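User: I'm putting together a small comparison set for a docking exercise, and I want a reference complex before I start. The sequence is below, and the ligand is alpha-D-glucopyranose. Could you produce the 3D structure with the ligand included, as structure tokens?
Assistant: Of course. I'll restate your input first, then give the structure tokens for the complex.
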Amino acid sequence: MGRHKFPKTMYIKLAIGRYLSSSAVNIEVPKGHFSVYVGENNMRRFIVPLAYLKHPSFQRLLNLAEEEFGYDHPMGGLTFPCTEETFIKLVQNIRLFNQTRNILHFIKPKSPFSSHNLHIPTQCTINQPHKHLSLSHHNWRKKSRIFPATCCNGNKHDHHIADYSTTIENNVNDKNVALNETEAEKEAWRLLKEAVVTYCGNPVGTVAANDSGDKSPLNYDQVFIRDFVPSGLAFLLKGEGEIVRNFLLHTLQLQSWEKTVDCYSPGQGLMPASFKIRTVPLDDTKVEEVLDPDFGESAIGRVAPVDSGLWWIILLRAYTKITGDYALQERVDVQTGIKLILNLCLSDGFDMFPSLLVTDGSCMIDRRMGIHGHPLEIQSLFYSALRCAREMLAVDEGSKNLVKTVNNRLSALSFHIREYYWLDMKKINEIYRYKTEEYSTEAINKFNIYPEQIPYWLMEWIPEEGGYMIGNLQPAHMDFRFFTLGNIWSIVSSLSTPKQNKSILNLLEAKWDDLVGDMPLKIIYPALEQEEWRIITGSDPKNTPWSYHNGGSWPTLLWQFTLACIKMGRIELARKAVDIAENRLYADHWPEYYDTRSGKFIGKQSRLYQTWTIAGLLTSKMLLANPEKASLLFWEEDYDLLEICVCALNKTGKKLCARGAAKSQILV
Ligand code: GLC
């Protein structure tokens, strides 16, 4: 790690403060501007609007300058030792970005989400020296830091998609594993490679769906952050790390743009839901490629994708573990990216609980489905992202408080979920006999749950053996629906106890017909019907009962299920599910989802050739073939975290903590 002494904002303040008080300044700087020295041999002074400092390209430049000079800038004022040309180009890009945004706002001042057409130029290359900007100091090149450059130019009619397939083919196919591939796997690899999207000739992601017969792909022609995770894992497990590295670095460039919805900007650090590569004509013959992110404002849910940043951190750790390339996570820009995501998630708000408070549709289920508040899927991703961050953050003066906060949150979160989200026959019986309206911190019925809430289906459905984490919890509200991803990821991340992990898989086995049926795996069980569907989904015609998010079956969930089964030594369960899926997916052209109670039909509005369906199967099969690799992707119980929690509970002296025996059952 380089010298990273202060949080970035502080550095900016210090650097400017220093400049403003510097005696080297003898020409008046207009209000709202600052000056900077640029150049290699003969330094030139530039006056730049302060607003540009918010731009990530500028911030990265500041980080690099800090690394280089600390606070001893050679000219006595803020100095960037890059070429003038480079600097001017950078400023032009920022200006272009600002102008475009102003124009969009001017044309459609009242239209919601008016910035959806915004083109955001980001840097073209990650580590190809000939395309790097010419930075003056040799160390900068040696460290191969990302440096924001102009977008690349190409000829008109260049394609972003499928160009990469041959490159990957060469890298991937000759890696011995190909020998025993089934027909389905062979087709899946071909399709996955065809789904690869390139930016300036480099692979950077995979489109969500790649069906040539689909005349209206909506936003399925974009690279979704969450959808890329199984693609990334499939490539990593095959020994192909470049696309994942590029994806991680390019999405990092999209983070924290001043994305504006009318007059409001979401928090810095937000990762987009998806991005697209657009081609912008420069003149008659030349075009420019730009990355155009969608932060959720164009998708139907119109909601910020909280899971994107969490998945990004999880994929970064997977990349590091599988490739052994630790240098990537140590880069200043990557460390800053992790911190920005954490700051967003850990910032103080009005929350009363350690679980992350989000709006409906902020994850894989990205349309209204009644999962606002503290949905399990977000909590389990949050927990594992915090565990990844704890592993990856470089601990120094600047980050030690953050690391402490992460540790405390991890302990509190695991206690909260283990204790209050867990449901089995015994717990239902407890809830059934709850006293309500207890006005006290000593309340047994801590969330004032009215027993009448227990739904009829649950009494019949809950098996004697097994249990699960409920979907959501807040005062007077328990969402008893079974959410597959949240439960499986609780196992993978060790958010739940080893005993609970076992019980969740027992329940999945006992309720196989409902949760696996003809196509693994049901996204939610059961579906919302009738009045409940009307009120909660707002009569969403895509989310009708037992379809899509509302009780549809999603083959992409196979890979997480396989990982959980391998972790728990239940490999036969994963094999059974993969066997059901493989031939059918191949025959049905890899649909996005299936409908009906058992997943009998291809989803009504399902896309075909859905990339995360394809990648999910490939990743599952590779994990089954190499179970030892799976251990790089899951987490074991962390006893240090439990200890922090037990200590904290004892200090509170609450009656709850006196239930020692019960507590130790829940915690371990
Ligand atoms: C749907 C899914 C979402 C996915 C996207 C692209 O919107 O709900 O989870 O990321 O399609 O496949």
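The first strand starts at residue 33 and ends at 38. The CA atoms of residues 153 and 649 lie 59 Å apart.
User: Thanks, that's exactly what I needed.
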